[in-house]
Amino acid sequence: MDERVIGRSGQWASVVGLGTWQLGADWGDVDDKEALSVLEAAAEAGVTFFDTADVYGDGRSEATIASFLRGRPDLHVLVATKMGRRVEQVPENYVLDNFRAWNDRSRRNLGVDRIDLVQLHCPPTPVYSSDAVFDALDTLVEEERIAAYGVSVETCAEALTAIARPNVASVQIILNPFRMKPLYEVLPAARAAGVGLIARVPLASGLLSGKYTKETVFAANDHRTYNRHGEAFDQGETFSGVDYGTGVEAAAEFAALAPEGYTPAQLALRWIIEQDGVTTVIPGARNPEQARANAVAAKLPPLPPETSTAIRELYDRRIKDQVEHRW
Fold it and tell me: Whole-model pTM above 0.85?
């Protein structure tokens, strides 16, 4: 699979990575054997970038990745984790002592002395403007606890603030055919600054797979049940912030745009890969079949111009007014 450099870090990631939120929690139950099978399938398909967080299953996702990689010393996989969401979300908690403690825990979970890439995990907005926060992250690099750092953001404004920081290697943001604002505000700035762009929630929490109807029922411990209106965390993380009914209808239209040989999910992933400035896209997978199908998107032919035009028209007509003013 093709790889792209993660901005200023000098590290490389496959154009399709693997998001591992599903392997920790918040997407219903996934047992340990199935989680390891997902990691194996992704790696065998050429994925060299795993994205996780200390809060996914309270460390379960990190530990599962460590267990898998211990058994596959032949693989070179860059592992990025995130930190900051295990405490009250106030700027005062984003200090060096806490960073060291969080980093110690993640290094233990991952079984490494130095983490490839650590990202602040959608912290309070003032954190992005704090010199002390980024000085502390520089200290983690100097202490060889981490090789590089980036940020995961909710809004385009937060992304732009972070990109202006000289040592930020990457920005992770929601980008998909139902969330296009970053194309015009964030990607040009990231390209100009040499910052990597990690596209998350690429399938709008599964909407863009075309599998769901208005009657679909998700498990009680799935965020698509309990966070539809932002009850637990930012609403934009669930269905990209799109009203579920609208999203299902728009997703049916989107699925009809898939060229021959593409599934709707592969169409969404291929569209993201082709956006200038994207380093990697990190779909999740609940089973090996999904992981393999996602990876195929990297090898599909370029999208016809008329398909890209139709995707933009659908967004403008059905989605734009719901999301652009918020994120």
Answer: yes
